[in-house]
Design a protein that fits this description.
Beta-lactamase Inhibitory Protein, Chain:B, domain 1, 4-stranded antiparallel β-sheet, 2 helices
Length: 93
């Protein structure tokens, strides 16, 4: 195989593995987890906001190829009660 083609194939494979890693991270989440458990499972969020007993963790994870998607984890009273992308759980953001 020509070196340029081999490089392109390896690059494409690396990008696909990056996508799988992001999906795998989100699949580690479970309802009822604490914020500490979430951070241990998928890492530190890019940003955090809170209002009352609600905490929202915002993540930018590789979605496909070079693009990243925004994922949210919502905690109520210290426990995960919803997670996913915009519109996944009807939170309006």
């Amino acid at each position: 195989m020509h070196p340029t083609r081999l490089l392109l194939v390896l690059l494409a494979a690396a990008l696909m593995l990056g996508c799988a890693a992001s999906a795998k991270k989100m699949n580690q989440l479970q309802l009822g987890m604490t914020e500490k458990e979430v951070v241990t499972a998928i890492g530190e969020p890019g940003s955090t906001s809170s209002k009352g007993d609600e905490v929202l963790l915002k993540y930018r994870l590789r979605a496909s190829g070079l693009w990243k998607a925004t994922y949210y984890v919502r905690l109520q009273n210290g426990k995960v009660d919803a997670f996913g992308q915009v519109g996944d759980f009807g939170l309006g953001y």
